[in-house]
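Module 6 notes. Inverse folding takes a fixed backbone as the condition and produces residue identities as the prediction. Think of it as a translation problem where the source language is geometry and the target language is the twenty amino acids. Below is one complete input and output pair. Work through it position by position during the lab.
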């Protein structure tokens, strides 16, 4: 199954956080925070401006992105995998290697 977001929405797969601290302490699942990084899985067609024009999105499929702790409150399960649907404006930046 595939998912195709509409307009300026982006589907992101959350990146798993490490469960061990720098000091070597293993954190239980309940103590770990939600990760704020992920990979873009799908993007919409773009934002519709007031003039009616379509503005293309700045992110593309495969980009590694950083977003806020509570960004993308809409989650959906596709093929048993939990994905986040958020607006492009909720993404803080793209990680480049």
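Target side of the pair, the amino acids:
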């Amino acid at each position: 199954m595939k998912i195709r977001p509409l307009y300026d929405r982006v589907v992101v797969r959350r990146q798993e956080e490490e469960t061990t601290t720098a000091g070597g302490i293993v954190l239980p699942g309940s103590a770990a925070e939600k990760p704020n990084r992920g990979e873009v899985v799908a993007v919409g067609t773009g934002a519709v401006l007031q003039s009616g024009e379509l503005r293309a999105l700045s992110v593309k499929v495969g980009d590694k992105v950083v977003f806020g702790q509570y960004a993308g409150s809409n989650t959906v399960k596709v093929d048993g995998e939990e994905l986040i649907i958020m607006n492009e404006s909720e993404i803080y930046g793209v990680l480049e290697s």
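Reference fact for the lab report: The CA atoms of residues 35 and 55 lie 29 Å apart.
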